[in-house]
């Protein structure tokens, strides 16, 4: 004969474990999105910095060219 209360507890513990794993995965996905967004922002900032640096290098005072 099957012990129904033990069986019900086992099902509930499996359900709770499944919910726990789902919560962790959702949290991990959010972390990855945040990390991705931060990486994108840092990359864009680095790109803008490089562009600004190249602009500074290309600007030559006009009095230097006239000599």
Strand content: under 5%
Provide the succession of SSEs. HH
What's the mean pLDDT score?
73
The poorly predicted ranges are none
Distance between the termini: 104 Å
Topology, number of strands = 0
Overall geometry: rod-shaped
Number of helices: 2
Which class of secondary structure composition applies to the elements? Answer: mainly alpha
Describe the sheet with the most strands. Answer: none
Classify the helix fraction into a percent range: over 70%
Number of domains: 1
* Rg from Cα: 30 Å
Can you characterise this structure?
The chain is rod-shaped, with a radius of gyration of 30 Å. It is 88% helix and 0% strand. The longest helix is centred in the middle third of the chain and has 55 residues, at 4-58. It has one domain (4-58). It has helices at residues 4-58, 62-65. With 67 residues, the chain is mostly helical.
Q: In a few lines, what is going on in this structure?
A:
The protein is an all-alpha fold and 67 residues long.
Q: What descriptive keywords fit this protein?
A:
67 residues, mainly alpha
Secondary structure topology:
Blueprint lengths: L3 H55 L3 H4 L2
